[in-house]
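User: Can you help me understand a structure? I only have the sequence.
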Amino acid sequence: MLPASRLMFSVFACAAAMLAAHHAVAQTAPAPSAAVAGGYPSQPVTLVVAFSAGGAADVVARAIAPRLGALLGTTIVIENKPGANGNIAASFVAKSPADGYTVLMGFPGLASNPSLYRKMTYDPAKDLVPVKLLANAPVLLVARPGLPANTVPEFIALAKSGGKELNYGSGGQGASGHMAGELFKMVAGIPMVHVPYKGGAPALNDLMGGQIDVIFDSVPSSAPLVQGGKIKALAIAGDRRSETLPDVPTFVEAGLPGYYADTWFGLLAPKGTPPAVLAKLEQASAALVADPAVQQNFKTLGLITNFGSSQDFAAFLAAETAKWAKVVEVANIRLD
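Assistant: Let's start by predicting it. Here is the structure, written out as C-alpha cells:
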C-alpha cells in the first residue's frame, strides 16, 4: 500500500506532467500581443508558493506555470516559502517590489490568518491585490472505514448520542482542515475533538488506521483512498457532486445546506503594482482558465475552475475573511 503522501503526490504530479507536456509547444509560440505590450514582462516572473514542494498548491503552481508563462511571454519561476501557515510567503510577496515580477499563489489562510494571529507582519486585505481566483476544491468529509456512520445525518446522530466523543484530524493548527472542522461543529451543533498533525498525509494515514474518526480533506488527496476502499466519503461541499466521486452526496443533499468550506488557488500581487501590469496578469490568468486543457487538468485534480474577475476575487476574500473570523471567535483559536 502506498503511503497517503505518495498517493496524493502521484495524483497531482501526473496531472501536472500532462498539463506541462500539452503546453510545451505553446511556450514556443508567439504570445498574444496584449500580454507583452507596454514592456511588461521583460524578465521572469516569480510565483511564490506558501507550502512545500509536492503539496497541492505547489503542484498546481507548477502545472499552470508553462501556460501562464506562454501567455505572458516570459518564464514563470516557482519559489517555495513554507511556514507559519502561509504567512512567511505572503509577507515576502507583500514586501516585494510592486512591479509584477513577484506574485503569490493565494491560499485559504489569507482569509483565516488575520483572526488566528494577533501579530502579523502584513495585512492581506491592505498589502496584497487580488488578481484572479483560479480554482476551488470543495471540502470532502471522509471517515475511517469502521466508523458506525455512513451518512452525514448518521454522523451527527452519533456525535450527539452521548457515547465516545468523536474527533477529527487536520494538517495542523489553523490549517484549512482545522477551520473546516470547526465550521462543521458550528453548523451541525455537535462536539468534536481536534487532533492536529504535521501535515495532511500523516492525518490520512491515521484515518486509514482507525486512530481518528474523520478528516475534512479535498478530493485530490482523498479520492484515491476512497476509491481503494481505504476510507469512506460521507459528503462533499458545494452545490454539485464531484465528477471524480459521483456517488458521494453534497452536504445540501445530506441535509446540511448551511455548510461550505474549500481549498482555493488564486494569484495576488503586492499593493501598488501598476494597474496596467495587474491588467496584463489578470488577462493572462483569464486566458489560462479558459484553456480546455487547463480545465481538464483542474478536473483531474478535483478542482472547479473559476472564471470570475479580480473584483469577484476581492469580494470572495472579504466574505471568507468575515466567515472565518466568526469561526475563530466561536472556537476560541489562537496561534500566537
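Now, to help you interpret it: The chain is about 45% helix and 20% strand. Residues 310-331 form the longest helix (22 residues). Let me know which part you'd like to focus on.
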